[in-house]
TrEMBL record:
Keyword check for Transport: no
Domain Metallo-beta-lactamase: 126-319
Signal peptide (residue range): 1-19
Sorted UniProt keywords: Signal
The organism of origin for this protein: Algoriphagus aestuariicola
Protein name as annotated: MBL fold metallo-hydrolase
Taxonomy, superkingdom: Bacteria
Amino acid sequence: MKRRTFLTALAAAAPAGYLLTTVDFNSDTTLNHTYNPKLPYDRVPSDWKGTPRLSNGLFQNLHHPFEASLAAVVKWKFSKNPQEEEKKTDKRRLEVHQMPNPLPSGKDQLIWLGHASYLMRLAGVTILTDPVWIDNWALKRHSKLPLVPDQLGKVDYILVSHDHRDHCDEATLRLLGKLMPQATILTGMNMSPLLKPWMPKNPIQEAGWFQSYDLKESLRITFVPTRHWSRRGLTDTNQRLWGGYFIESGDRSIYFMSDSGYDRHFKLIADTMGSPDYAIMGVGAFKPEWFMHPVHTSPMDAARAFMEMGGKHFIPMHFGTFDLSNEPLLEPLDWLKANPVAVDGRMIYPVVGRNLLA
């Protein structure tokens, strides 16, 4: 296999991993802070300076700098998975309910479409998060999509949390750009050059952490920190900002984590934005933990973060749809069902295609 093909295959096989980069992480750089001057800050931590960005242009996590290691990903991919046989024999899949068409009008909705993709309808506004709906060479769905895309109807906002392929799929976004060119893309800084060729008619807003988007409706969506990283090709590590979303309507608040390792930012978000009514937390793609924990929360870490945030309802995601790591597809849900006290009995059981709002 040619060297470039091998590295590209590793990138597909290890979407949460650390891959070869041309960036010298030991070079002399200074830490700066940045933001989008076109967007407001509504609420920020008391000592907030802006989104961390190195003088070489690369974005930075708040507390733990990202470091790339080809050796680590090679060690993982060429080590024996102790759960390999268990994964082969475990044929269980997520429960999927086909969604009605059209959706009931005038009712708030929070519908899981698999992995990190949700359809939300809040105060009459329709939102999609991280739509990855079409199989490609890197990702194959193990849970059926519960809707027909061209029957979805009007969508106001599409949230793209970062550039990794299990959250940002070119084929899906090209399709949505044709079906709903009026939808505004809400994303992180420096994502436009990636997204605009796929969705040339869609307006795009880029935010720094704790900045709120410019929305017409009585809805507030704020881009918030995660402990993660970004990469699309072989030489663009951390050139685009990653993050999650804090979504507020008149009577509900929803925290959408996206991808994140455990860190102090969860408590920081709650202290700044308030405790969320619904916390949508990633729980899958967490093994081997020595490799995954800086960038993905395990169900144990997600439960801990949820309790620190003081959320009312816990909704697990980022498991069961794509096979990204060593654990069986439904192991995160198994752990949460066996340990309900970890989230104080506040978990909403996740079913693809069903409205999860209590």
